[in-house]
Amino acid sequence: MKFTDDQIADIGEEIIKVLKSVYDPEIPVDIYELGLIYDVQISDDVDVKIVMTLTTPNCPVAETLPQEVKDKVGEVEHVKSVDLELTFEPSWNKDMMSEEAKFELGML
């Protein structure tokens, strides 16, 4: 089944809501606001590709956080598959955080 652009946009919003429910355990801010999600691509068939990073390559949740993201996004209605790519290029830095995240962490 092919989805319309509007349906894809709605599914994308649901995926972002899910991403905002995943937290880096060391920082009280969700991974989306932290800027750890570099890209979310959704095909017409609702195959989802997520490109994300971690705050550091040695992050204690390097094994579990990407799996949690994959599992939660996979539960979004209509999502057929989730391909998650973990990258450290470019490496994450504090400038990638949203204003909300910076405020939350007292950086503004």
TrEMBL record:
InterPro entries in alphabetical order: Fe-S_Maturation_MIP18, FSCA_dom_sf, MIP18-like, SUF_FeS_clus_asmbl-assoc
Protein species of origin: Chryseobacterium rhizosphaerae
Pfam families cross-referenced by the UniProt entry: FeS_assembly_P
Superkingdom of the organism of origin: Bacteria
Location of the MIP18 family-like domain: 13-83
Coiled-coil segments on the chain, per record: none
Protein name: FeS assembly SUF system protein
NCBIfam families associated with the record: SUF_assoc
